Each structure stands twice: as structure tokens, then as C-alpha cells.
């Protein structure tokens, strides 16, 4: 089946949803293509407190509001798991189920996917004590001990979130330097339920009757090992861009992030990138939304 549009947006996170608002308001026949639920990382974020105008609200609420807004000017929400983009006068966006979407302009806003720890015991305990989404699964660990891995904004925010359920949260960092904002670090440091293990890396996940029974960690300098008696493990060690379907186009850097100019356009004319999937310094909801607006407006002007 082939479906024709003026502008195809791949990914319904903050970047894609904002682009949908701008493109459809400008009168472009717009498709907002998504393989999961709309909202992107917002769905996995407990609270957003740096979206201007709203001091604090659940990520899921902002996702829902953005989604309603994104389709309110006529953009069509379509299901599609994209496997390839073919360049041409009308670009072809090819989905896993064989559906082909075509348009002269395409925006990729597929974001990033969480990294795995890649240690023994991880794969077999995913969903059995290992989760990459504290907001989704934190409540299963009421009065239990848990570990969060990582020293960035995500790890620290989710560690703080988990303390409403868990009796204890061990925060395991491979260095003694955080990558998070000061306000987030202060929240974590003042939380008596969080115990910090700096300069430790996870070695292996221990089993207890098919579920997580503990986490063995090792000191990066001395090599000393310890077992944390946890039943839940939440890795937050960064993420990689979702760009596998772009491999045939000359638009990616060595890490797989999209290279775009100030109009969010790649070296392929009318192929745009926006949000976390792009090479950039600051990955935030507000910068993703800004990218989406710029890309949609640039596509409109060029078409
Ligand atoms: P991140 O900032 O890249 O932090 C990843 C953390 O995991 C770092 O502490 C890193 O250690 C550690 N790490 C990486 N690989 C590891 C491994 N194999 N074993 C153990 N530790 C490992 O990732 P993020 O926290 O997911 O954030 C991603 C982006 O979203 C960032 O730009 C962040 O600022 C943004 N974000 C912002 C907010 C907010 O503004 N409130 C919230 C969430 C995310 P090293 O430091 O040693 O490399």
C-alpha cells in the first residue's frame, strides 16, 4: 500500500509532534509516523520541570497534551515501523509491514534508545527485575532495594523517583563526576534513601529463582567487589540514536547521530532531522520542540 503526503514526520516525540503542529498549520498534508505510543521519552519521565510555563507536571501529561495538539490542525497519525528511506523527487519511507509513505520532504525525529549494560545476567533478567523505565516499573519495587546505574540526569532523576517506592536505592557510577544538572544532584544528595557508589562498575546480575537476586559491582581502581542485595536494577547509562534505517544515506556521524545544518536539513535535500537523534550538545524537550518547529518551517519554505 502507498500513501502520499507533502511532509512525513518519523517519530512522535516532542520534536516530531511540534513539527506536526507547524507543518499542518502551514497547510502541508502531514503524516506523523510512529511505531509505538506518541510521547517519546516524555512517557518515561516522571516529572518535567524545565518546560517553560509549566513549573512541574508528569511527562505523560505533557505527552498527551502535545499529542492532542499535534493532530489538531490536520496532521494524520499513522502507524509505521520504518526500515528504509529512499531518496528521490518523492522520498519513499518504507515500513516493515510493506506500507510505503511518499512525500517530497521527510523529517526524522526518532530520538534515542537506552543502552544496555552488556554484562552477564542482564538479558535473561530483563522484565524480571531489570527495567529501563523507572516510571513504568518503579511501583513493583515497593519496600525493596534497587540499584540505578549511571551518573547523568536520567539516572539521578529516576533514582530520586524510585525512592517513593523502594526502601533503598543504590546509585552506581563509574566515575566520581556527575553529568547532571546541579538541582538534580542536590535532590539526590539530600535524599537519605539514596546511597552513592562512585567509581564502581556493574559486573554481573545475580539470580534468585529466575528473578534478579543481586548486583555484583567492582571498584574501578582497587578491583574490590561487592554484592548489592537488590531485586530491581535500573540502568540509565545513556542512549544511542535510532537511525538504522538511514544507513544507506550520507547523513550520519560516526556514532549514528544525524548531521544537520541550522535549518535542521541534512546533506540530502528535503531530508531533515530534529531532536535527540541529531548531533547536538543539549538534549532537552525544549530543544527538541525547537528543532521540530525549525525543520517544519524550513520544509514549508522550500516546498
Ligand atoms: P548521559 O548524560 O550520557 O549519562 C550517562 C551516564 O551513564 C554517565 O554517568 C556515564 O558515565 C554512565 N555510563 C555510560 N556508559 C556506562 C557503562 N557502560 N557503565 C556504567 N556507566 C556508564 O545519559 P542520560 O542521563 O540518559 O541523558 C541523555 C541526555 O538527555 C543528556 O543530554 C541529558 O542531559 C538529557 N536529559 C536531561 C534531563 C533534564 O534536563 N532534566 C533529564 C534526562 C535526560 P561517564 O560520565 O563516566 O561517561
TrEMBL record:
Enzyme Commission (EC) number: 1.8.1.9
SUPFAM superfamilies xrefs: FAD/NAD(P)-binding domain
FAD/NAD(P)-binding domain mapped to chain residues: 5-292
Enzyme class, spelled out: oxidoreductase
Any one of the GO BP annotations: removal of superoxide radicals
Keyword match Flavoprotein: yes
Reaction equations catalysed: [thioredoxin]-dithiol + NADP(+) = [thioredoxin]-disulfide + NADPH + H(+)
GO molecular function: thioredoxin-disulfide reductase (NADPH) activity
Cofactor, how bound (note): Binds 1 FAD per subunit.
Pfam family name, one: Pyr_redox_2
GO cellular component: cytoplasm
Keywords: Disulfide bond, FAD, Flavoprotein, NADP, Oxidoreductase, Redox-active center
Cofactor(s) listed: FAD
Family: Belongs to the class-II pyridine nucleotide-disulfide oxidoreductase family.
Quaternary assembly: Homodimer.
NCBIfam families named in the record: TRX_reduct (TIGR01292)
The protein's name: Thioredoxin reductase
Amino acid at each position: 500500500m502507498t500513501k502520499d503526503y507533502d511532509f512525513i514526520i518519523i517519530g512522535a516525540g516532542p520534536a516530531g509532534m511540534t513539527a506536526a503542529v507547524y507543518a499542518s498549520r502551514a497547510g502541508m498534508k502531514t503524516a506523523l509516523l510512529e511505531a509505538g505510543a506518541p510521547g517519546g521519552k516524555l512517557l518515561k519521565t516522571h516529572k518535567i520541570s524545565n518546560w517553560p510555563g509549566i513549573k512541574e507536571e508528569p511527562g505523560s501529561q505533557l505527552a498527551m497534551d502535545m499529542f492532542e495538539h499535534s493532530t489538531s490542525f490536520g496532521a494524520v497519525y499513522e502507524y509505521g515501523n520504518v526500515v528504509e528511506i529512499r531518496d528521490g523527487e518523492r522520498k519513499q519511507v518504507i515500513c516493515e509491514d510493506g506500507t510505503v509513505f511518499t512525500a517530497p520532504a521527510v523529517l526524522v525525529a526518532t530520538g534515542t534508545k537506552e543502552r544496555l549494560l552488556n554484562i552477564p545476567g542482564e538479558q535473561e533478567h530483563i522484565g524480571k527485575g531489570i527495567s529501563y523505565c523507572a516510571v513504568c516499573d518503579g511501583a513493583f519495587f515497593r519496600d525493596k532495594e534497587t540499584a540505578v546505574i549511571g551518573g547523568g540526569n536520567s539516572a539521578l532523576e529516576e533514582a530520586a523517583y524510585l525512592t517513593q517506592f523502594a526502601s533503598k536505592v543504590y546509585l552506581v557510577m563509574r566515575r566520581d563526576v556527575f553529568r547532571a544538572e546541579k538541582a538534580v544532584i542536590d535532590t539526590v544528595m539530600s535524599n537519605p534513601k539514596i546511597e552513592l557508589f562512585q567509581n564502581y562498575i556493574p559486573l554481573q546480575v545475580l539470580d534468585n529463582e529466575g528473578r534478579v537476586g543481586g548486583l555484583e559491582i567492582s571498584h574501578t581502581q582497587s578491583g574490590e567487589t561487592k554484592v548489592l542485595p537488590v531485586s530491581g536494577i535500573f540502568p540509565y547509562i545513556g542512549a544511542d540514536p535510532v537511525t538504522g534505517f538511514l544507513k544507506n544515506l550520507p547523513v550520519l556521524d560516526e556514532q549514528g547521530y544525524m548531521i544537520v545544518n541550522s535549518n535542521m536539513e541534512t546533506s540530502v535535500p528535503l531530508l531533515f532531522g530534529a531532536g535527540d537523534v541529531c548531533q547536538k550538545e543539549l538534549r532537552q524537550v525544549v530543544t527538541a520542540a525547537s528543532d521540530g518547529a525549525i525543520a517544519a518551517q524550513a520544509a514549508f519554505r522550500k516546498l
